[in-house]
Specification:
Elements lengths: L11 H22 L2 H8 L3 H4 L1 H13 L3 H7 L2 H20 L4 H29 L5 H30 L3 H20 L13 H24 L4 H22 L14 H31 L4 H29 L1 H19 L8 H16 L2 H11 L5 H49 L5 H38 L30
């Protein structure tokens, strides 16, 4: 990467095209979640099968994202963008016309192969386009675009599925993807010298088994249980392959993914905080929908509307926190944001059968407000310390480890919730049996059914509350680490010999 890039004229047009592309990729992901029940009914598949639309997407991301550091160094932004959007468009069309689940899954995974390249590519272009002192504001706008997708996704999905069916989710995205692809073809005109670097295919294999094994293993733990050989077997294979992959990268002159970037302390700290916070964030994304729909009986559309104010606030706050980051640094923002996250997580661990809808909205919105002050500032501060030559590796590592930590967080919280609910159900059942025996009255079959339902609901609520309580300690760990954040300054390459890899500043048509 050319570290002497002129920052006077950032390519705003190019960034706009890349951001719209990233937005529709994120939007498509958030649209699908609420449509899963409809897909199950239409294609006649069960929950364990349909969840592969999410798990498969994560697996493809986990396999491809580590290779993006190599791809960004090897190929121009134009070539990568066209390839990524072309794959995303192909997958969208396939999924939209799928009448069998295997074809839908193939389309979904093809989409994933495109979106896996888009995100690191956009972050890399932003890093080389702005000087360190202006990156906070730039990343804030980036966050506004990405947070906008979860803000409108659930509500838009509910409307489209209710009125047109789940296939419209893909048909809706298709024309937008075509326009964005054509804009990129005509506007992106960057040139790149041919670099003499080759892809280490054995590293790709190790990376695929390593990250793929971890993602699959932890993602499957919630359904199959930790004692399943599919779970512990794939996790063990992933750990072994990942260890081998890391050792191989450390001793290579031109590694596919450079783990030596962890020698930069602020980068290592930022990625640690991001991983821990991602695990805590999944408590709200995962547990709250279960609570409002399973226990409270709130409709999917109303559940999506409940999350809307928090998502909108997070999107609006993103550029504001970006400017605050440029002025004050990431430490104070992270401490305040994580303190809010810890407090709101604790309040979520006190849910009852009659917690009001308004109270849930306010609590979730405040929690999202806290998280909006952490994710982007912490990430940007860590990336700011890296020399420009390591930007592709830093962005690829960020995206990969967030995928892994998300899978781990999901599996951990689902397991905690399930185990707690099971043990609490047994306790409540024993108490009910003792009470019935002491009263001497023989309950009717209808009374027994009602009692079982009440016990199940109460046990599930206790499980959700306990999982939220555990997330308090996860968020608190991130809060402790935030006190060690310092404003990062870009360093020269202190790790080893500089290479000439990377992406030069892309140009738009007509720019000099």
């Amino acid at each position: 990467m050319d570290s002497s890039i002129n920052h006077e004229r950032p390519p705003y047009g190019l960034l706009a095209v890349l951001m719209v592309a990233a937005f529709i990729a994120f939007l498509n992901n958030t649209l699908l979640n609420i449509a899963l029940p409809s897909i199950m009914d239409d294609l006649e598949v069960g929950p364990s099968t349909v969840q592969w639309l999410t798990t498969g997407f994560m697996l493809v991301n986990g396999v491809l994202i580590p290779t993006t550091a190599f791809l960004i160094q090897k190929y121009s932004v134009r070539k990568l963008y066209i390839a990524a959007m072309g794959l995303f468009l192909l997958g969208t069309v396939l999924a939209g016309f799928a009448h069998e689940f295997p074809l839908l899954l193939a389309g979904r995974m093809t989409q994933a192969s495109g979106s896996a390249i888009l995100m690191p590519l956009l972050m890399n272009v932003m890093l080389v386009s702005f000087p360190v002192e202006k990156r906070g504001a730039a990343m804030g706008v980036f966050g506004l675009v990405l947070m906008g997708a979860p803000a409108i996704g659930p509500t838009l999905s509910g409307y489209l599925v209710e009125h047109y069916g789940w296939r419209m989710l893909f048909h809706f995205v298709t024309p937008i993807a075509v326009i964005v692809l054509l804009l990129g073809i005509f506007l992106i005109k960057d040139k790149k010298e041919r670099l003499n670097i080759k892809l280490d295919y054995f590293s790709v294999l190790l990376s695929s088994i390593g990250f793929g094994g971890l993602l699959y293993g932890f993602s499957s733990a919630g359904n199959k249980g930790w004692d399943s050989p599919y779970v512990y077997g794939t996790i063990a294979a992933g750990v072994i392959a990942l260890t081998w992959f890391i050792l191989r990268q450390v001793y290579q002159d031109t590694p596919m993914l450079n783990f030596k970037i962890f020698k930069y302390p602020m980068y290592a700290l930022s990625i640690s905080i991001s991983m821990v916070l991602t695990m805590a964030m999944f408590s709200g994304m995962l547990l709250l929908p279960i609570y409002v729909q399973t226990i409270r009986g709130i409709s999917p559309l109303d559940a999506g509307l409940m999350l809307l104010p928090g998502a909108i606030l997070m999107a609006v706050m993103s550029p504001i926190t970006g400017k605050l980051f440029d002025k004050y640094g990431g430490r104070i923002l992270a401490i305040v944001g994580l303190a809010i996250t810890v407090v709101t997580s604790y309040l979520f661990s006190k849910l009852t059968m009659d917690t009001s809808y308004t109270e849930l909205i306010i609590l979730y919105t405040v929690r999202m407000f806290g998280m909006s002050m952490v994710m982007m500032p912490v990430s940007t501060n860590g990336l700011n310390q890296l020399p420009a030559v390591y930007y592709p590796h830093g962005t690829a590592m960020n995206n990969t480890l967030q995928q892994v930590s998300g899978a781990i967080g999901t599996a951990l919280l689902v397991t905690i919730m399930s185990n707690r609910a099971e043990s609490r159900g047994i306790e409540l059942g024993n108490v009910a049996m003792k009470n019935a025996a002491s009263s001497g009255a023989q309950p009717t079959a209808e009374q027994v059914a009602q009692l079982k339902e009440q016990i199940t609901m109460q046990a599930t609520l206790d499980g959700i509350n306990f999982a939220f309580f555990v997330s308090v300690f996860i968020a608190a760990l991130a809060l402790v680490m935030a006190f060690f954040i310092k404003r990062a300054k870009q360093e020269e390459d202190i790790i080893g010999k500089k290479t000439d890899g990377g992406a030069v500043m892309p140009k738009l048509a007509g720019n000099n």
